[in-house]
Design brief:
The structure is a homodimer. By secondary structure, chain A is of the alpha/beta class. Chain A folds into 3 domains: about 55 residues, no CATH class; about 210 residues, Rossmann fold (3-Layer(aba) Sandwich); about 35 residues. Chain A is built from 13 helices and 9 strands. Chain A is globular and about 65 Å long.
């Protein structure tokens, strides 16, 4: 600790508190880890200070996104992956993104309760995150949480989201490798198509493989992907067709093969893909911070009245948003655009 | 047309093409309107130029968001609202946000086909918009499309989204008044709660009112809302409890009452609410443009190599995103931060 202020006034700065908290997290203290994750979710100054310390220690973990329509068995598959990763001695963290309702009081945990089975295992940490109310974007909060787990030594981080909304699907797609889980015969058409899930898939898993239609569904997906044009995702190289696997998560069948496919994607065939995803993730993180900084600046004392006037003019349709944005840019350039990194 | 360039080189600038297109749109040409909406969805330079012209003419329309879980009967309700609004002689436009899949070829139109019934009525215009692939955000594209309809004289604009994802719900919530549609007895619990839909509701409609459970569901919602804390949405005043109505969209029952409730929300009880929503919408539009401008600037010739280096450093975890954002801000302030509004 360097601050004299903390010693004289008994009040630590965010940087000092972050240093203490990070030390505890790196030493394996689970309660400190939970506290830091809450700070990250709430985007407090403590979180920024802690992330700045931890970020350089991250980058080693394998980030695995798991998404798919409701009922495909994502949570069961996550539980099976945890079991298999633990068998291999790997510490594993889960960021489970839940839809939530502030009115009814927080995240709908649903079947995550079964993950309580791992409550006693220090090598497993499961964190639910509400999908709503993230001003800076859900994916930025999730990426930050994954970086914390990564720095804390969890070498596999599973990011589980329900694949029924654009943001939710995108969050899973920020992982190094994205697994789309599909159940056999969930209707006339394959559910994942409807939600636009296939585009983000690096690996497709047809789960509930003990059901009659499983291998037929896998075959349909194969055929469909073979016919599909190779369309590149923004900021990504032309993709290879995703592997299609069949698992029965409830019994663990096919899970070892899924882990092997994940490793293949990471180390060989999908290597360029993973690198491109990491670049896209870095870009999104930088822009999330940048956007925060600019909002703070627009709300700063000097700029606030002008920003409010511009806002009112656009709301009243007296000014178009393009003109307002350009004036705001000029304004922000004038009031300390170069002071960001050099306030002291 | 002012440009000599267009006359000499036979090649109009975006501003000139926008002027011609806007004139046609304002004169009621539907094909031009469709073309402009495509430009808006693809965020072309033509769209920016056109929106700058049209934006001051917008601001009069009533923007109505319609969202809810799949199966609640949103599309049927939208059709019933169109019929009722047309009966009152009001021109009505619909922006229907569809989940989409590039691999399988665009928006899943589903039951929107029945809206074809209005194909011959010049007072009705229905536009589907893909929910995926909007770099600048789905709500920014939807807001821009609504402004185009507004300027073109559609005095009611319905924004219909499926309420199963954060972005999708938020899009409906950018309207002046947000209607959450719920079907009776869709399971043990009321579906809207799960998705966090109630928080965005100005009016709740229990549709399929001819089913046995409809009035019981309405009663449950009433009771639940009475118990709920008055939680303010960001940038909004403390909300009133939403009205709960019962409709049977298939027969049109309750739709007149819904329109009356929409007018009440707009003109009396929810007036402060509507104003706050318009401010929030203006803010989101300005930030979407600002963010675009900054991205363009970061990709500009002078800044690009430095921005790419920062990106690479963050992806490699050699630099944290906060430090990168601060350096990028300095960089952008140095390379033309004040030239935005004065390039010529």
């Amino acid at each position: 600790m360097t601050g004299t202020r903390a010693q004289t006034a008994g009040e630590a700065t965010p940087a000092e508190r972050a240093a203490t908290l990070c030390d505890a997290v790196l030493a394996g203290d689970r309660r400190s880890l939970a506290r830091l994750l809450t700070a990250v979710e709430n985007r407090t100054p403590l979180a920024e200070a802690a992330l700045r310390r931890l970020y350089p220690m991250a980058g080693k973990a394998q980030l695995i996104g798991i998404t798919g329509p409701p009922g495909a068995g994502k949570s069961t598959l996550v539980a099976a992956l945890i079991a298999e990763l633990r068998r291999a001695g790997r510490p594993v963290a889960v960021v489970a993104v839940d839809p939530s309702s502030p009115i009814t009081g927080g995240a709908v945990l649903g079947d995550r309760v079964r993950m309580q089975a791992y409550a006693d295992d220090d090598g497993v940490f499961i964190r639910s995150m509400a999908s709503r109310g993230h001003a800076g974007g859900l994916s930025s909060a999730t990426t930050a949480a994954a970086a914390v787990f990564d720095a804390a030594g969890f070498d596999a981080v599973l990011i589980e989201t329900v694949g029924t909304g654009q943001s939710e699907v995108e969050v899973a797609a920020t992982a190094d490798t994205t697994v789309v889980v599909e159940a056999p015969e969930m209707g006339d058409e394959i559910q994942a198509i409807k939600a636009g899930l296939l585009e983000v898939a690096d690996i497709i898993v047809v789960n509930k493989g003990d059901r009659p239609g499983a291998h037929r569904t896998a075959g349909q997906l194969h055929a469909m992907l073979a016919d599909a044009p190779h369309e590149a995702r923004p900021g990504r190289p032309v993709p290879k067709h995703p592997e299609v696997l069949v698992t029965t998560a409830a019994t663990g069948e096919g899970v070892v093969e899924l882990l092997a496919a994940l490793d293949r994607h990471r180390t060989t065939s999908g290597r360029g893909d993973v690198q491109a995803t990491r670049m896209a993730r870095a870009e999104a993180q930088i822009w999330a911070v940048l956007s925060d900084r600019l909002r703070d600046r627009a709300r700063s004392m000097e700029a606030a009245p002008m920003a409010a006037a511009l806002l009112g003019a656009v709301a009243a349709h007296e000014l178009d948003p393009y003109a307002a944005a350009d004036r705001l840019l000029e304004l922000m350039a004038g009031t300390g655009a170069s002071s960001a990194g050099s306030r002291d």
